Amino acid sequence: MIAKETAARVLAAALRTGADLAELYVEDDTTLRLRLEDSKLEEAIRGVDTGAGVRCFFGDLVTYAYTDDLSEESLLRAAEAASAAGQGASSAPKVIDLTERKSPLHYPIEKTFDALTIAQKADILSRVDTTARAYDARVRQVNSGYIEERRKVWIFNSEGIACEDDRAFVEFRVGVMAQQGEIIQTASEAFGGQLGLELFDRNDPIAAANQAAEVAVRMLDARPAPAGEMTVVVCNGWGGVLFHEACGHQMEADFITKGTSAYAGKVGQRVANDLITAIDDGTIPGRRGSLRFDDEGVPAARNVLIERGILVDYMWDLVEARRVKREASTGNGRRQSFRHMPMPRMTNTYIAAGPHDPEEIIRSTKKGLYIKSMAGGQADIARGDYVFNATEAYLIEDGKLTAPVRGATVAGNGPKTLEQIDMVGTDWALDAGYGTCGKGQTARVSVGQPTLRIPLATVGGTG
């Protein structure tokens, strides 16, 4: 995108007022978005976004400037703007020798985006719409969407690092609303990943449309959810969003260094049942949160957060690592775009498999709630308190799944829940590939876990 010689001149300009580290981040992002509603193609947008950001470090002070013009003149102006906001101890000229850093990680693309035309991609959405509407007369609304993105990034810094990453994403979703009298229920299915159009060879959008319609219609006859303290069993895969929101964010280093996390100062201490091992892994092929390098040029890594109940480490970016004089980042510096500074973010975060047969987890539960799908949750990062809506849930009665229930919420405290979990299944899985995390900036992520049991949780309902 830009020559290393240009990058070196920009970095030298960024160091002119004595910064101890300078960084240049360059991005070229191409997207296609299709959205079908009420059987009509409401959105077909192709976009290209290019730009760069220059960051200067003056000890713990960090300054930033960005531009959407990649000419050397504009890049130098951004460097001058960032450097002018701080003053370091020395402004002696520095010769920067950029050495390209290669990644051993390979995320192959089997079918490029142009293997299907835009019209053919829109036709998939049209067939999905027809399929869902034909499932049952009570299906009232269907919406579906397709997104593809090719995001190329280049990172250079004054310590001599030069690296690049090429990230290709495909996403599909379908949502269905069913109505019976005054009762309205919704359901959705989605899948995606960091791959090409082979996504549709591995996943069937028509089957997803039928599944979403089936769940929406089934839940019309669901009982009102019970309320009170009870045992809750959470599904594998997407159920990992609970850990992500209620615990994972508390292990991001910016909350640790500010002292606003329940996990601050607890490395080496027991923070969960010894059945729990939790990992953030940015190296898994095909996953939404995977990277060759993070957005600061640090190689992606597999980081164990909790091992057999013991807190091992947090997730670090360069800013927070420098703040505590830590030797290195963990490769968790991520940014939404060149317009944003990076921050510590999760990648693919999950609870590892345990020893219990998932069917035995159900059989051993006398009475409780089984959550098969969750959405619309929120968590207080400082305390770890969470509330999640169960979009598909079933009663557990005498060790069997029985009636579906609607309107259920599950609430609790993330750190306490990790201590309470008493059964962890062998059926580990990651989500279907459609997770997006918000933290002031959006970032693609994956979550995962096996089936697990919380012996006592607060369930809100209308029954």
Notes on the protein architecture:
The chain is α+β, with helices and mostly antiparallel strands and 463 residues long. The protein folds into 3 domains: 86 residues, no CATH class; 101 residues, PmbA/TldD superfamily (PmbA/TldD fold, 2-Layer Sandwich); 233 residues, no CATH class. It is 20% helix and 41% strand. It contains 10 helices and 24 strands. The strands form 4 sheets. Strands 1, 2, 3, 4, 5, 6 and 7 form a 7-stranded mixed β-sheet that branches. Strands 10, 11, 12, 15, 21, 22 and 23 form a 7-stranded mixed β-sheet that branches. Strand 22 and strand 23 form a beta hairpin. It starts with a helix and ends with a strand.
